[in-house]
């Protein structure tokens, strides 16, 4: 029993350290992007921002394909945790016709 009590915090810490992908399941391109990020933790913006803030933890790397408005809100929250923008690219979204999707990455430095 003591071993499992020690192992659970270690597993939780390991999960928090894994890179995180944020996507929006309401946007086909964002879903396709998240599907290419195998083995990483994913958070869906369609579940609401409150759920995102609770699940963020303290990641060291976060990447996403989101709308500009979501990106700016997430960027502020992640900067408060010490992450900095490493990449920001406006994408052309041929499936949905959205021209305001951004592919971004934030990392701890």
Strand-and-helix sequence, N→C?
HEHEHEHEE
- Could you give the distance between the termini? 38 Å
Number of strands: 5
Number of helical segments with 4 or more residues: 4
Mean pLDDT figure: 80
Widest sheet, order of strands: 2-1-3-5-4
Category from helices, strands and their pairing:
alpha/beta
Helix content: 40-55%
Point out poorly predicted stretches: 7-16
Biggest sheet statistics: 5 strands, mixed
Beta-strand residue percentage: 25-35%
Shape descriptor reads globular
Overview of this protein structure:
With 109 residues, the protein is of the alpha/beta class. Helix content is 41%, strand content 29%. The chain contains 4 helices and 5 strands, in the order αβαβαβαββ. The chain has a 5-stranded mixed sheet with strand order 2-1-3-5-4, sandwiched between helices. Strand 1, helix 2 (28-35) and strand 2 (41-44) form a beta-alpha-beta unit.
